[in-house]
Amino acid sequence: MAGGGAASETAAAAVPPSLPQGAAYAVVVGVGLVLALIMMGITRILKKTVGEDNRKTEMFMTANRTINTGLTSSAVISSWLWSTAMLGSTLVGYNFGVAGPFWFAAGCSPMIVFFSVLGIACKMRVPSAHTLLEIIRIRYGTVGHIVWIVLCLINNIIAVANMLLGASAAISAVSGMHVVAATFLLPVGVIMYTFVGGIKATFLTDYFHTFVITIIICFFTVKAFVTEEISSPAHLYDLLVAAGEAHPVDGNHNGSYLTMASHGGILFGIIHILANFGLVIMDTGFFVKAFSATPQAVVPGYIVGGIAYFAIPWCLGTLMSSIALGLENSPVFPTYPRRMSPTEVSNGLVLPYAAIAIAGKGGAAAILIITFMAVTSTLSAQVIAVSSIISFDIYRQYVNKSATDRDVIKWSHIGVIFFGLFSACFSTILHYGKVDLGWTLYMLGVLTCPGIFPTTFAILWKKQSTAAAVASPILGMLTGLGVWLGTAYHFYGEVSVASTGQAVPCTWGTAASAISPAVYSIIISLAKPANFDWADFRKEDLALKDQSDKDESASNSADEGRSSYEANKAHLKRWGRIASIWSLATFLGHWVLWPLPMYAAKYVFEKGFYVAWLVIAIIWLWGTMFVTGFYPIIDGWKQIWEVYQLLRKGGPSQQTIEATRENSSSAGEIPVEGEKGS
């Protein structure tokens, strides 16, 4: 293995970077700092005009729970728009043909939509929560809290490593920038604007970055078909047919790249959907964004975001992997006259090479920009998530129970800096351990999945006992690790990076990690069931108040919270039903009704079908660009205009200040029947 890897790396090094190193440093350092300064400026403007003070914990961590549907949907897309999504969807498209990008997309959208069920349940049952772990602590006590801290930190660490490994390799390939330099410099700008702006800055940068990324991806959908070597979807189909005849895909029906009947593709799909359920449900960042949204924005925001997101890996992965396969034997392709090496493919270089093939240096620059935008945006969400764990769930709970608002903000800042540096160090260790994007893409579910069912049960099932909640994820992770390593040894005769990164061990290990905790939890809970009272969640006041807040009729807050809950309960339940219906429909559509008939029939795409497949994906992608770019502006136009007017006047009126305080104090409320939503 070592000799083959070295040869592959030598071959990979033979492809000269399309851009100078200076271009990469200009984007990673220069653009990163400029964006950080812009976000800091916007944060100051919002404080000056509408009173959004990031020195307050409620504002720093949850944006006073005032984020509307448009910005929520954009942030949801951004949270899942990892550099891995773009690099990985083209990687599996290159390996498995059209089945790969579809299963990649189908492994993402259903759980984003499903999260709306958990999000609205949290809004209904724990309206003042800041993190998932606060909910776990109230229900399962200290031991359960510590177990979930470990599970969530593992999830965040492995997610960030996956992002940085792929992004650094891609940036290095197009510019020659050293992988380690990229790994350490990418988090710098993120640390700066997240340190100052908190979750609101994350929402705003999510919006900007995602809009830029979707514009560039839409550019590829145009540029591909004005390239002489491709010219049309029909000709691209002919190139794919020729590629399948020259290099048949092992496990695909007739060796074709143009079929959903792909054994490797469906194995990847199973791994991917299970792993992504873990990545979403155990990512405290998704909960923070749900808590930051207004109650009436959670469900539509996550549903719209989940459906719109589907087009990005599906369209980009299908188009760019088709281009790579079709042009690999053309002089315009960077590796010509040879094929891409396994190391290049596993490092996620299919997308950069395809972009260079159709757009030259412009394509390389586009990849540099979207990779930078994607990794910094998603890294910001991860940094906020870990920061919330360090400040709320470790410092406030176990170090200083009487922590003031200022203390928690201080430790939130420490958490931002610490995790930004730690993630770079950890990713560098993995890089020198010869771990790449392909390996982490396949195995991460083994580590992220054990908490899926215990967490879902904690929010939705009152019978799960403390013993079941504590034991089931631990037993599930041990089961998953044992199955993963055992099957790797059984099938390949060794436990190594190469054997543990194969599809079969990762599929079995991920499935065991995901499903076994459900079995353990149900058995233990049924043996001695709990009967948790959801009202217990609202007995503890989770909001942090400064001294001036405490002086204001604090004795009435509990009564007001209870009356608000009763008034909103019916509306929250209605949103919960809508979320459940959409979640089921999304799963059935993306996993049953759409792909499985084609898989069972072993259908090989005809030219007209492939053209329609690609055109629909492109139209869907352009719709996603509208959702990410224009919907937040339309939805938030009233506040944008208000900020502009107040900026002209030089500051907020007393009425605006009072309204901001009211929003902060009424977290969790939604308009009752007959009232207009914000």
Describe the structure.
With 678 residues, this protein is mainly α. It has helices at residues 2-13, 21-50, 57-62, 69-80, 83-96, 99-106, 109-125, 132-175, 179-223, 233-246, 263-281, 284-292, 295-309, 311-327, 342-346, 350-399, 405-432, 437-448, 452-460, 466-492, 497-500, 503-527, 547-550, 557-593, 595-601, 607-629, 631-635, 637-649, 654-665. Helix 4 crosses helix 9 (179-223), helix 7 (109-125) runs antiparallel to helix 24 (557-593) and helix 11 crosses helix 22. The model is unreliable at 1-13, 547-563 and 663-678 (pLDDT under 50).
Order of helices and strands: HHHHHHHHHHHHHHHHHHHHHHHHHHHHH
User: Which architecture name does CATH use?
Assistant: Up-down Bundle
What best-fitting shape do the alpha-carbon axes yield? globular
Structural Rg: 25 Å
Overview features:
single chain, 678 residues, mainly alpha, Sodium/glucose cotransporter, 77% helix, 0% strand, globular, disordered N terminus, disordered C terminus, transmembrane helix, Na/solute_symporter, DUR, urea transmembrane transporter activity, membrane
Brief overview, please?
The chain has one domain: Sodium/glucose cotransporter, CATH 1.20.1730.10. Helices cover 77% and strands 0% of the residues. The protein has 29 helices and no strands.
How do the helices and strands line up, and which of them pair or pack?
Elements: H1 2-13, H2 21-50, H3 57-62, H4 69-80, H5 83-96, H6 99-106, H7 109-125, H8 132-175, H9 179-223, H10 233-246, H11 263-281, H12 284-292, H13 295-309, H14 311-327, H15 342-346, H16 350-399, H17 405-432, H18 437-448, H19 452-460, H20 466-492, H21 497-500, H22 503-527, H23 547-550, H24 557-593, H25 595-601, H26 607-629, H27 631-635, H28 637-649, H29 654-665
Helix pairs in contact: 2-9, 2-16, 2-28, 4-9, 4-12, 4-13, 5-6, 5-8, 5-14, 5-16, 6-11, 6-14, 7-11, 7-12, 7-13, 7-24, 8-9, 8-16, 8-17, 8-18, 8-20, 9-14, 9-16, 9-17, 9-26, 10-14, 10-26, 11-18, 11-22, 12-16, 13-24, 13-26, 14-16, 14-26, 16-17, 18-22, 19-20, 20-22
Region (Disordered): 656-678
Membrane topology: Multi-pass membrane protein
Subcellular location: Membrane
